[in-house]
Structure formats: structure tokens, C-alpha cells
From TrEMBL:
<dbReference type="GO" id="GO:0019748">
    <property type="term" value="P:secondary metabolic process"/>
</dbReference>
<dbReference type="InterPro" id="IPR032466">
    <property type="entry name" value="Metal_Hydrolase"/>
</dbReference>
<dbReference type="Pfam" id="PF04909">
    <property type="entry name" value="Amidohydro_2"/>
</dbReference>
<feature type="domain" description="Amidohydrolase-related">
    <location>
        <begin position="5"/>
        <end position="329"/>
    </location>
</feature>
<dbReference type="InterPro" id="IPR006680">
    <property type="entry name" value="Amidohydro-rel"/>
</dbReference>
<dbReference type="GO" id="GO:0016831">
    <property type="term" value="F:carboxy-lyase activity"/>
</dbReference>
<keyword id="KW-0456">Lyase</keyword>
<dbReference type="GO" id="GO:0016787">
    <property type="term" value="F:hydrolase activity"/>
</dbReference>
<protein>
    <submittedName>
        <fullName>Aminocarboxymuconate-semialdehyde decarboxylase</fullName>
    </submittedName>
</protein>
<dbReference type="InterPro" id="IPR032465">
    <property type="entry name" value="ACMSD"/>
</dbReference>
<dbReference type="GO" id="GO:0005737">
    <property type="term" value="C:cytoplasm"/>
</dbReference>
Length: 331
């Protein structure tokens, strides 16, 4: 049986918290998040982060949770808080501290933990060097947000060198949202996450598909959290636009075909939704994902995969074979 590889799990990096503590940009980001969350969700988040602290840093707690979930290997990325406000020098230090912290943590259990780093996409002049440094540290990929700061989308021409370098180095690019640019329209009922995150991911992926990034870089390995957000559930609308309108006919292949060149995780909760996701993406493009240790994640990703009732080959691929291809691992 293929090893179970959870591609979606997070780690707190205290060295980064120390770097940014007291910075005005962090205070502004927290104000934005508070307004978007609304008071009720903010209060719950503050309480939960305090309770989650040990699970985000303690190795034994993580390994015990993995064992209980029947997860053999976990790809570990930092908590996806946005630092797009950081100026170049600080951004570079945040990236270095994050990548070194994740690498050191995973080195304590290298057979079970795979390090995933980060880059500062808001400063395109820095990202290629950061990617090369990540590769030198032995990281298997980098986690990015759904945009490269407030004024730059992922298809911005200034990021062309980033995508080329990620393809050249064989580093996976993991797209993980944080909230949503819909702002205070989401300030109740935890819409910040339940609507905001999948909306942001659908938008980010759509810009990559229609812009031709995947056609220009056929070796690029892109993965997105939470089942790819809303896009796989309604990519047929994107295909219709591509077929019906000249302004959307920007690629040789339709969006659905390009989407199937990317990877997503299995974090869609129900057997029915997972079967639909696999029908859209193909059995070779879905990986296991738990979102450890957050409450919007699950603590039984293998059980949920098995409950979907796939054949043995599909189950093995999602359990670990696809993640091994994504991250360049030898099974």
C-alpha cells in the first residue's frame, strides 16, 4: 500500500513572529483581518489560536495526530498569514526565517516530515534568489498566497521569472488563501473563510489558466488548497467563456484541460464532493489534505478518502502517489 502523504499541514515559526512584532504593517494587516472577520469570528479565532499553539509547534503532538489519522508523511508549510505589507529587507528576512525554521523542524523527523517554504511575491526582484535558496535548503516547494500583494495578481508579467525558476528547479508551488479581498462583506458567520478562501483560490487559479502560465511552463507543478476552491465545481462556465468570447480565448486548451495540469487536495469534506472533484480533476491530480491543525480541516483524511469508494488504484494515487509526483519524492 502506498504511504499516506498529507500535503496540507501547517507550522508556526516563532522566529518570524519575533521579526515582525510591533511593525506598523503587521498592525494594519490585523486591522484589515479584524474588519473582514467581524467581531464574532475574530473572538473565536483569538481563542482558538491560543488553544492551537502546542499543535502548531510541538513535534510529538504532531506525530501522534498523524499516527491517529494513519498519515505516514506530512508536507509542512508555515501558517499562511500574509506578509505582503513587508518592505524588501524585512520581507527577505521573513522568508529566510520561515524557510530555515520549517527546514529545521522537519529535519527532526525527515522520514515523516517534508518542508515547504515561502517567497515574497510582492517583491519580484527577490523571488528567484529565494527560490534557489529554498532548493539549497532541501525544501520541496513554496507556499504562496492567491495574489502577490494588493496590487499584483499571480499572472502579472513581473512574476514571469518566478514561474520559470519554479519550473527549472522542480519546486512545487502551493497556493493557499488567507481570507478574501471582498473585505467587510464577509464580516459575519465566518464567511471570511468559508466563502472567502474558496473564492480567492478560484480567482487565482483562473488568472493562471487564462493567462497561459501553464502552457508556457508545462513542467510547472502547481497545487491549490481546499480542493482548488470553487473553480473545479464550475469550471464548465470558464470553458463556455473560452469558447464563446474572443477576450477569454487566450490559450490553446480550454480552462478545464489546463486545470487538470494542476494538483488540488482532497479537503472537500464529503464522499460525494470528493468523487466530483476527482471526476473533474482526474484521479492523478488529487492529493491527501487535512489542514492540520485548524478547525476547517479534518483529522481523518484517509478515512474520508476510503469512504469515497474509489478503486484501489485511484485510492492509492490520492493517498500518496500523486503527492510523491507533486513534491518529487521517491516512494
Amino acid at each position: 500500500m502506498t504511504q499516506a502523504i498529507d500535503v496540507h499541514a501547517h507550522l508556526a515559526v516563532p522566529a518570524v513572529d519575533a521579526l515582525i512584532d510591533g511593525h506598523p504593517g503587521l498592525a494594519r494587516q490585523r486591522q484589515i483581518d479584524a474588519a473582514t472577520l467581524g467581531p464574532a469570528s475574530l473572538a473565536v479565532n483569538v481563542e482558538q489560536i491560543a488553544a492551537l499553539g502546542p499543535r502548531l509547534v510541538d513535534l510529538d503532538t504532531r506525530l501522534a495526530a498523524m499516527d491517529a489519522a494513519r498519515v505516514d508523511v506530512q508536507a509542512v508549510s508555515a501558517v499562511p498569514l500574509p506578509h505582503a505589507w513587508a518592505p524588501p529587507d524585512l520581507a527577505d528576512r521573513i522568508v529566510a526565517a520561515t524557510n530555515e525554521g520549517v527546514a529545521a523542524y522537519c529535519a527532526k523527523e525527515p522520514a515523516r516530515l517534508i518542508p515547504i517554504g515561502t517567497v515574497s511575491l510582492q517583491h519580484p526582484s527577490l523571488v528567484v534568489a529565494q527560490l534557489r535558496a529554498a532548493a539549497d535548503l532541501g525544501l520541496r516547494g513554496v507556499q504562496i498566497s492567491t495574489a502577490a500583494g494588493p496590487d499584483r495578481e499571480l499572472d502579472d508579467p513581473s512574476l514571469a521569472d518566478f514561474w520559470a525558476a519554479a519550473e527549472e528547479l522542480g519546486l512545487a508551488v502551493l497556493i493557499h488563501p488567507w481570507g478574501c479581498t471582498l473585505g467587510e462583506r464577509l464580516n459575519a458567520y465566518y464567511l471570511f473563510n468559508s466563502v472567502g478562501n474558496p473564492t480567492e483560490t478560484a480567482l487565482a487559479l483562473s488568472r493562471l489558466l487564462f493567462s497561459g502560465v501553464l502552457e508556457r511552463h508545462p513542467g510547472l507543478r502547481i497545487w491549490s488548497a481546499h480542493g482548488g476552491g470553487y473553480l473545479p465545481s464550475y469550471v464548465v462556465r470558464a470553458d463556455h467563456a473560452w469558447a464563446a468570447r474572443p477576450d477569454a480565448r487566450t490559450t490553446a486548451e480550454p480552462p478545464s484541460a489546463l486545470l487538470r495540469r494542476t494538483f488540488v487536495d482532497s479537503l472537500v469534506y464529503t464522499p460525494e464532493q470528493l468523487r466530483h472533484l476527482v471526476a473533474v480533476m482526474g484521479s492523478s491530480q488529487v492529493t491527501l489534505g487535512s489542514d492540520y491543525p485548524f478547525d476547517m480541516g479534518v483529522d481523518d483524511p484517509v478515512d474520508r478518502l476510503e469512504a469515497a469508494g474509489f478503486d484501489a488504484a485511484t485510492t492509492d494515487a490520492i493517498r500518496g502517489g500523486n503527492a510523491a509526483r507533486l513534491l518529487g519524492l521517491a516512494l
